[in-house]
Please model this.
Amino acid sequence: MKQIFTLAYKLLVSDRGKYTALLVGTTFSVFLIVQMTSAFAGILTKASATVINVGAKIWVMDSAATNTVFGSIPMPDYVLDAVRSINGVKYAEPLYVGSALLKLHDGTYQSATVIGLDDTTLLGRPELLEGNIDDIFAENGFIAVKDEEFPKLENPKIGTEFELNDNRGVIVGIAKVPTGALYGTPTLYTTYYRAIQYIPSMRFTISYILVAPKADSDIPYIKREVARLGYLAMTSQEFQSGISDYLKYKTGIGTNTLLMTVISFLVGLSITGQTFYTFIIENLEHFGALKAMGAKGRELVYLIIFQAGFTALVGYGLGIGLATVLISAAKLRLPEYASRVTFTNLGLAFLLVLIIASASGYAGVRRVLKIEPFDIFRG
Model:
């Protein structure tokens, strides 16, 4: 078997033109697949940025507000008291999430996301790079998140002032968060009551209730009790999955990504399949000679499978490497670039490459098994 594989390798690389064309087709297909799926994965992660950054275990919300974090429906205060009274709840605190239009110190206007944390516990507060978290209780105190959107606030420093609905705001801290926002707006943290005071809102003001269970085993009971109140309780993972499902199935993002991935797959399949079949046709005399020398059909099949598999694996590696390098370079120059390579992306690309290799190998195997040594030598 070792001799068969050695011969297969020599036959494959002897025609450098065809071998290069095979690699280019597979590499280009993998590159496009990884680029598209990684961009989609990055979008899904950024869409759940607030859920990830706040880090609450259970989110309580209106049952109609599960599509996006910013699609919340305000809840009355009694819901907070009712949730706190549920057995198994360690603590529950309100969270405000809203949008505001800021007037910066140079007179320009900038939209921003304002997150209001519970005034007592500051549950969900970010990690500070500069400043003191206690300063958020100072008059007009806000904390700015230093992410991809931070420059839109003109890179504020501690003490920088701005206006929000004719109210004075002061940056008292600079923070970092695990995930940047998707929607292109900077993020500010302040206290809950300052947020609802500065930003016009409806009669009810609680966007979400953040709940910490006493134990993970209490989560199902808490969810049932919240449902009895007429509201919905979701774990952080369930909330993120709901946001992802909304983007996948109820917007054009998922459809467009799927179409581009399928197109990338078909491009790779057509280029690789056609080139590999041409390679087999041009080497029929070699396969016929091997058959005349006593090579069995299954040995020729192994030879074809090795050639198709070897090309697919090399092209897969090159495609992953090229995509990773370009994504890394793009993030250095474009901080807002929402692309994220995951094991799921790599696994999907590998599966599609195996399909490409199998289809190419199948066409080659069928052609090789039909040849007769007599036809080769007669020609």
